[in-house]
Amino acid sequence: MRTGIVAFIAGLLALRFLPELPGQEVLIACLIVSVGLIFLPRLYVVGAFLMGFGWACLSAQWALDDRLADALDGRVVWLEGTVVGLPELREGSTRFLLKDAQSRHGALPSRIRVTWSNAPAVRSGERWRLAVELQKPGGLHNFRGMDGEAWMLAHRIGASGAVKAGQRLSHQASVDAWRDALRQQLLQLDAFQRNGGLAALVLGDGSGISAQDWQLLQTTGTTHLMVISGQHITLLSGFVFALVAGLARLGYWPARLPWFPIACVSALLSAAGYGFLAGFDVPVRRACAMIALVTFWRLRFRYLGAWVPVGVALAVVLAAEPLASLTPGFWLSFMAVGLLIWIFAGRLGQWNSWRSWGRAQWMMAIGLAPVLLALDLPVSLSGPVANLIAVPWVDFLVVPAALLGAVFLLTIPPLGKLLLWCSGATLDGLFTFLQYLSVLAPAWQGLLVPAWAVALGMLGVLLWLAPDGLPVRPLAPFLLVPLFWPPVNQPASGLANVVVLDVGQGLSVLIQTKSHSILYDAGPLGRGYDAGERVVVPNLRAMGIRHLDMMLISHGDADHAGGAAAVFGGIKVDQVITGEVKRLPGSLHPISCEDNQRWVWEGVMFTVWQPSPLMKGNAASCVLMVEAAGERLFLTGDIDEKAERRLIESGRDIHAQWLLAPHHGSRTASSESFLKVVRPEYALISRGIHNNFGHPHAQVISRYERHGVQIYDTALSGAISFTLGKHDLPQGARQKRYFWQEK
């Protein structure tokens, strides 16, 4: 039985690592063969694996088939759909899900996620007629950061879009509409401005928590406290079980009723009720499934040991939603449960309550570190201390008052408001404590970790957390070394590593020599999006860069200079130079770039020119030529055709093998005469897909192709990296294929 469960789970998890899905005929054959094999004593393991693998791949294929058609990608269409779930309100925009949308332009995915700036009030259960600019699932692709395509597929969202106009058609009563009404009441309360946190704990809606508070929770390793997960649902069901058990022990339970099965069923019903209130999202379903199986195990199969219900729960969760393995929360939740069993099982003697609680915190911090690094998440240094206080604080003070307050808000409003006010007060006190801890011990973001280092690290922590007396336990610290100090790809003298980051409609390029680093532009800044904070700084840290010798901001436009302040605040920067000093924040202490400024780092030559120093905007861009071992890279900012002509007329040597397409491939640049002088072999285009400017222009692409120039586009390849001086081809962040990525 145990072997079959493990094989079935392995088949389901294999989906996560596939570059391509097998054909449907192959998958159906796998399922048919598996049904026959599971009844054979020696081959049932193979049958279980094939059954899990076939089902997972078929389910994934159905989700892929439900994506937006290519013909509608980037088009504005009128559609009608029903709002489901709780709309998210963030920084002047509303984001919500549409279900079963219909349009005369063609079939649409069953679930579409749309964003509406300055929207009217949108409530769950309403039916709207909307003009939406539709897009296929996608997102930025860098060497560090969330994979938007994987996230959307895991949630079975087939398209995203921006609402241009809309009209409310009707309102339909539904469970989500009732939850939305309750949320509105929670958000209107006076609860120490922690209404968003209360809505998160009661309804599973975290959109009311500010980005700063989410960052604080991540820094202190307490994010799990503000999402309805197994911890909160287990707490409620455990409380209900303990209440029935206490009544039975004190003699207040009817003797004719068996208290134990009733306690188990009551605990399960309370978990289901909390899940109903939270909307039964994937993490909530996962927690309820786990509690149901543990309850059944506690009633009938306790003799099988603790690993069996965990394995069955894992199999049930994955069978119900095979795409759950694409989300970090899935791995963290089940790894946490497995670590707790590993920590407390098989030890001689018993720890007292306080010793168990304290040891659990630091052991979990160590045990989850490899998982966090593998998932590219920060490791909280203050997490053990923060959770030691925060977990009981939230579980025994904040959540009970919030849940009771929500119940009484619907029945006895004054009492409900009082309880919610108390819950908000205790939550505010917790955030004050967490803020203090975050200053003392900020989170640590490691470098990009190779798979072999993660495997060694997991083995190391399992040995470290094993009971005393294991002969090979002293080897554990040595196995952790590659995890925390992985090999760093530094260029040799005379060479330079170049990374064109995928920042959307903007630009940011890193050039790294053996001992120096320069950042050319810092990405865009827009409503609710700072590429410097979300993309540039995390990726620099992932590459082991904690210090920039120079940040060169070509000019002051927001798509090039917007992220500069975040980079300056997150990375030590020695010097900031730019073509437009007055348009950059004074806190950066920028200085003007000097025309024909030149320097050499480890045999790599850098030259700065400013073709139009008296101009403003795009024309004021400072350009940068980098030369390593005879190979040249020309970074051109947003110069236009006139600036290109000035460079040509100056008589400077602007020939380069690599050319950053001026102004993202705009038709106002990349002139015929400019390409004839530069004679590039490769062109780099940094832009956002379906941008409003039509970059790159078709005429420019045609011009590059006529000159035999090979084009690399961040919107298609993701971040682009290569070593200047090696004369090799670049690598794109999307080069490592997964089945959910668009071709």
Automatic annotation (TrEMBL):
The protein's matches in CDD domains, at most eight in alphabetical order, are given as: ComA-like_MBL-fold
Q: What is this protein called?
A: DNA internalization-related competence protein ComEC/Rec2
Q: Species name for this entry?
A: Pseudomonas asuensis
**Transmembrane segment boundaries:** 26-58, 233-253, 259-280, 301-324, 330-348, 360-381, 393-411, 418-437, 443-465
Q: Does the keyword Transmembrane helix apply?
A: yes
PANTHER family linked: DNA INTERNALIZATION/COMPETENCE PROTEIN COMEC/REC2 (PTHR30619), RECOMBINATION PROTEIN 2 (PTHR30619:SF1)
Q: Does this UniProt record's set of keywords contain Plastid?
A: no
Per UniProt, residues of the Metallo-beta-lactamase domain are 505-689
Compartments, as annotated in UniProt: Cell membrane
Listed Pfam families: Competence (PF03772), DUF4131 (PF13567), Lactamase_B (PF00753)
Q: What is its main location?
A: membrane
Entry membrane topology = Multi-pass membrane protein
Q: Which NCBIfam families match?
A: ComEC_N-term (TIGR00360), ComEC_Rec2 (TIGR00361)
Supply the alphabetized keyword list: Cell membrane, Membrane, Transmembrane, Transmembrane helix
Phylogenetic lineage: Bacteria, Pseudomonadati, Pseudomonadota, Gammaproteobacteria, Pseudomonadales
Specify the domain of life of the species encoding this protein: Bacteria
